[in-house]
Amino acid sequence: MKTTHSLAIGSAIVALAIVGGCGLKKGSDSGPSSTFTFRSDPPTSYIQVDRAGMPAVATAVITSKNSYNQAKPSDDASGLFVPQIQTNVGAIHTKLDDDLMAANLTPASTPTSMAQAGPLIVPDTLKITTTTASGFPNGRKLTDPVVDVTLAVVLLNLGANTTGTTPVPQTALTLANIPLNPPANDRPFATAFPYLAAPF
User: Fold this and answer.
1) Which end is more exposed in the chain, N or C (fewer Cβ atoms within 10 Å of the end residue's Cβ)?
2) How far is the C-alpha of 105 from the C-alpha of 168, rounded, in Å?
């Protein structure tokens, strides 16, 4: 028997963007095709197989991925997956701290990482507050350096200074400002929903 699980808002947004992208006409960034028909199946026709409110959480710091992907945000809030997250965050620091220090960055201890990242990734939902400015982690704009911010919160001791000849305070944007990853998309975004550039 199929079981319906409530989806985190992040999963819904990702799915909506993918579905909307399927309606793009080839070679056009102008928006969805008028001929696309959305499915009208009832929610009970589906089962939850994945969730992705926050980027890379299940990939990087969760061991029991199937159980995690089928769980709910309330399971996260209960602390069900915190031991796995803590163990894997510690393992990541063991592997990467020497590289961070070689780059004149100050890594966080595992307890500090958990304190910084906990509110961001537990529960695994995309949080939106309409009374403050938009931008990750308050929502997620297409131009936000989401992975760089997440990595900084998990890896760096925020508030501590970098090392080297001109120390500066480390922030959630430290890795984005290096930049660690490409600073912009290789194609301009569309001006209408779903806004993503066509992949061809």
Assistant:
1) N
2) 10
